[in-house]
Amino acid sequence: MKDTFKHQGMRQQLVDTLKKKGIKDKGVLKAIGKIPRHLFMDSGFIDHAYQDKAFPIAADQTISQPYTVAFQSELLQVQPGDTILEIGTGSGYQTAVLLELGAKVFSIERQQELFKKTSKFLPKIGYRAKKLIFGDGYKGLPDEAPFQSIIVTAGAPFVPNPLLSQLAIGGRLVIPVGDDVQIMTLFIRKGPKEFEKHEFGDFRFVPMLEDKN
Fold first, then answer.
1. Is 64 considered catalytic here?
2. Is the pTM of this model over 0.70?
3. Distance between CA 120 and CA 123 in Å, rounded?
4. What is the mean pLDDT of each run of 10 residues along the chain (213 residues)?
């Protein structure tokens, strides 16, 4: 569980790569420059930790490509103190980015193996979400709503209505929508029944599955 000067240097190179790819949000870049991504990966992949690529983690899932994490985080326009719901805790890397941005994070994971692993791991390296939940992301978290932002880190075949209904007015939902290839989609809640929709090109995510296992 070491974070060396070498790792820090590699992170700065990763930040430079993300800037070249168009990420501008200073808070997001700072978070990526600070979080030891190599600790989130299986030891066999540590050499790849600061490449801009997705890699396998437990339960047939992946740790998202840093560019994707940065892109989704930038779309959320996180302000310190925002309450954010994350669907798909995964390795916890995206969770850590949101926490670095000063958000209060509630995160739902449906893979029990990953849920157990990440719940233990995040506090060990100093990241404490408000709540990590083992559950079905399609239902959201009505007890804690409304949320300033909701981020979905898996490919959703459709937009779950509970997630839209749990957004605060002015809140932002960032969700990759589609089957094999997803379109990164942003919904901004303008009123009780009014949403503004923006689309941002193709991404690839593992599928968002219903029910937990």
1. yes
2. yes
3. 6
4. 90 97 97 96 80 83 90 97 96 97 97 94 96 93 97 91 97 93 96 96 74 52
Angstrom CA distances, 182 to 55, 98, 162, stand at: 18, 22, 20
With 0-12 / 13-18 / 19 or more C-beta atoms within 10 angstroms meaning exposed / middle / buried, residue 160 is: buried
CB-based contact 87:110 (threshold 8 Å): no
Cα 55 to the chain's mean position, in Å? 15
Token pair in block for residue 64: 């998202």
The answer to whether the beta carbons of residues 186 and 200 sit under 8 Å apart is: yes
Q: Which run of H or E residues covers position 9?
A: helix 5-20
Residue 154: which of 203, 204, 95, 207 has the closest Cα?
207
CB 154 within 8 A of CB 162: no
CATH architecture group of domain 5-203: 3-Layer(aba) Sandwich (3.40)
Any bridge partners for residue 134, and if so which? 109
Catalytic residue among 64, 91, 107, 149: 64
Q: Count CB neighbours of 120 within 10 A.
A: 10
